[in-house]
Design goal:
Two copies of one chain form a homodimer. The first copy, chain A, is α+β, with helices and mostly antiparallel strands. Chains A and B meet through strand 5 and helix 4 of A and strand 5 and helix 4 of B.
């Protein structure tokens, strides 16, 4: 008879934000109380094993609050990762067992990954100072714990799929008012496609939900650009 | 300190097929060797706890083969279900413990649900005879075990989303050659929208990937309709 597996289940949160040039992901550190060890493998996504009385969505909200202070972030499940080898790195295993004060050896963890698209705003400094959490550009992501690099890759592909079927989701990444250059940059960044700026300007005119405001950039060295807003009702 | 949960993990497969009128889902029976008990709660999706050496996708393929004989079915993960109360029905619990010969009490199971769109073909009879598995129209689904009714509902909504962003996926549900009436019926069924047949015929002309064949229905009482095929290269 085959051996059943009784793994732990975790949730991991991929928060993606846009810094004006490219997608960034919010990364935290593997920490144990009283340990400032800087091993190579100590970056990870915000995540945790789930507790007995928590539903999956609740666990995702709880861990995000614990590790980053962020609350009421709209997240959606996008994939479960359960490869038999995802705990293969012994240092990840040691950290896990210490962090959760586990008294027995972990065999497997299946993780349910959550995704959110959001604005990178002024909470940036607070995230860094109080939580040691930081936004890192996708192109500069270091080696992460477990299979978290694979999870981020899958998240980025998922965003490409989501925004291609529902372009309105792109505006989750932008500030309330934005320039055409900013929209152009975020569009290229999520679709992975390079689009000429003039052609993109024409494309914008075919988006009824992108509304030009009577307001321009101020205090810039180049010619001040108009601001636009996203009108959800027209999407 | 919060109590960590060490649940089992399962996979469940939602296979959706089209019978000419509406979506159907493939349902199996909760069985134990030597038990022909017909309790009300004995219908379920094909699914199983995962084994130690299996990845999630492998577990989904393995259980589908075991419970229905179907192999090489393209399935994709669509959602993880982990509500704390999904094992609330005692008869489900008893069945599980007997079926898997478990010696201890199950606290929780998180299930990873898979989805497939496929043709209902001549294997229908074999499924019924050899596996006691049957296609049941969505509108006639009985009470299923665990939260399987909720899983089917979520799958149907997912199909609506998938086919609205990628209409070519609708053809996964149709035979290789099909009539306009069949395409109309499947379209209404997956989108949940009622569309006038004449308007739909016009809509078909705007689908370059729907190609009319030099072949008509044979042996029908009404005026024989043309067959069409789906040309994936033009999608």
């Amino acid at each position: 008879m085959e051996r059943l597996v009784n793994p732990y289940v975790s949730v991991d949160c991929v928060l993606l934000g846009f810094d004006g040039t490219q997608l960034n992901v919010l990364i935290v550190r593997q920490k144990e109380s009283g340990n400032d060890d800087n091993s190579t493998n100590n970056y990870k996504l915000p995540g945790s094993l789930i507790y007995m009385d928590e539903n999956l969505d609740e666990a995702a909200q709880r861990v995000l609050k614990q590790l980053t202070g962020l609350v009421q972030i709209r997240m959606e499940q996008f994939h479960a990762f359960g490869n038999v080898k995802r705990l293969a790195n012994p240092s990840d295993m040691i950290w896990l067992e210490r962090f959760h004060h586990l008294e027995h050896h972990l065999e497997r963890i299946v993780t349910i990954a959550y995704l959110s698209l959001l604005r990178i705003d002024r909470k940036r400094e607070k995230l860094q100072k109080e939580y040691d959490a930081q936004w890192i550009p996708i192109s500069e992501i270091p080696q992460l714990a477990f299979d978290h690099n694979e999870i981020v890759d899958t998240a980025v592909k998922t965003v490409e799929r989501i925004t291609s079927s529902n372009p309105a989701r792109i505006f989750d990444l932008l500030p309330r008012k934005f320039t055409a250059a900013q929209l152009h940059a975020v569009y290229q960044s999520v679709t992975g496609k390079s689009v000429d700026f003039r052609n993109f300007h024409k494309k914008m005119q075919s988006m009824p939900y992108v509304v030009q405001l009577d307001e321009k950039e101020q205090g810039v060295n180049h010619r001040a650009a108009h601001y636009f807003k996203f009108d959800r009702k027209k999407a």
